[in-house]
Amino acid sequence: MPTPAQLDSLWDFSLALYAQPDVADTCLRLQDEQGINVNLLLWSVWLECKGLALDDAHLHEAQRRTRGWDHHYVVPLRHLRKRIKAEFGIQNEVIEGVRKHIKQAELAAEQQLQMQLQDLTQQWLQQPNGLKPMAIGNTQFEGRNLRRYLDDAGVKRGAIDSLVQCLTGVLRSI
Prior knowledge:
Elements: H1 10-18, H2 23-34, H3 38-49, E1 52-53, H4 56-88, H5 93-125, E2 132-133, H6 144-152, H7 157-173
Antiparallel strand pairs: 1-2
Helix pairs in contact: 1-3, 2-7, 3-6, 4-5, 6-7
């Protein structure tokens, strides 16, 4: 099985990374407690694993371009799924089936958002002022892009350090 860094597709990379111990819980905690967009978080890690440095201009452009899709489709589906579970639990098979369909729609919407980010990345790579490679010889994940995104989002340094440490360990072990 390829490592996440070897996966060209952002979606495949995200699924592989998200399946690793502690990654999903940590990402969801940041999403629920601090409003972090997990897809942008995973994209920033993917870029670094591809050796690409994320600057503020490109980060803000990616946020701008994905905000509408996230706000109008991903987030409402997530809220609906969570509300159904909170209101009805998982005991009623019919209602649970509806909730699972909503979860599949939410995942499809997230996959579409990641396709937008991957397409945007490819566009930038073809532009003279596009994304730049990281420093030569930088083969270890250091969380530079992730730190840029989370700093920009106002996440506390301790939470950022914990996530970077978690991901560094995961990316080294696979």
